[in-house]
Amino acid sequence: MKQPNCKLTVAGCGISLDSMHSDAIKAVESAEILAGGKRLLALFPDFKGKTIELDADLTSKIPDIISSSIEKKTVILASGDPLFCGIGAMLKNINGLKIIPAVTAFQEFFSRIKEPWNDFSFFTLHGKKETPDFRNILASPKALICCDNKNTASIIADKLIAFCPSAKNRPAAAAENLGLKNESVIRGTLASIAKKQFSGLSMLLLFQDNTKISDDGIFLGLPDSEFHVENRLITHPEIRAICLSKLRLGSGVLWDVGAGSGSVSLEACGLCDGLHAFAIEQYAERCRQIKANLTKHGQESKVTVINGLAPEAFEGLPRPRAVFAGGGGRNTADILAAAYKELLPGGRIVVPAVLLETRATLTNIFKDEFIEALSISVSRSEELAGQRMMKSENPVEIYVFGKKEELHK
Fold first, then answer.
1. Average pLDDT over residues 159-170
2. Is residue 309 part of a domain?
3. Could you give the number of structural domains in the chain?
4. How far apart are the C-alpha atoms of 366 and 349, rounded to whole Å?
5. Which residues span the domain enclosing 63?
């Protein structure tokens, strides 16, 4: 059934009535229904039509608003720009919808401090329960964090310093209540901003520190000590770094089979913004450890933890562009066959092997799909009677397989 055309407009309000586009003002003036948050509705105290106050639970009121807009001119007020982390994305498929843009709060912030914003990284904490991705925030040369009541600019500055103490003198700026009478914009360091109080309508901006290193560097090869782990069941940093490079990561889906501590999923998603991982682990306690590791590093939203046994646990998952199989179980051949079947053409499977039985299986599977095998030996320095010696770890072989495009033609 064809969807009827609606008389619905989403009008961006910017940060104040003065910053609204003239077309948005005209749309409100001709509207019969006006919906928006309490603060935005207050911008139009003389509106004569029906008003609908929206709160955090948009889903309960939006269907009725859309239905009403079939007959009556309806305007939904949006803070900032409707299509930048706003309600516009939720309504974009509505027939007849008109969206009127506005300058966002962060654009106003950059204009206040006269800084270009074409090269910044954007992070939003609005309504998010998970831990912020502090490592990627600090690794960005210029990072803008939109805050909320739970995590204001000063609270986030304090947490960033706790995560990486060397960042305390990093140049920063903060803004709050832009467009309101109590607007405030300051420059300083993370340490100075952490000592002040800010409202929930605040933003924090980090600049590059050219005088010293104030971050932990690339999100790759984290030490084992960064993870909750059971019985050393973890892909160690050097092996993990090589496996990540062989997976050819990018936007899409990663299956991390026999995830253990979740270290591969966590670091893979830290490297690729467009990647989502499914960490599949049969033991419940290890799943709890994976979730604790994701929380610690702010990666909860990027990794889905599945407590299940492969290959049965693959059912219903989106097809992967890459599969990492690190469990080393007895049914390796069945797991890889099922994973290969769902692997997208052009995708890769990477499997580290320590056990002779696993090596034998990998040597005889996927003859035509084999790309390469590597033998990795790692020796690590260790103290002995006040001096240092090299202690070898178990050698690891890494097998790499690929799915050829022509196999699906």
1. 91
2. yes
3. 3
4. 11
5. 8-103
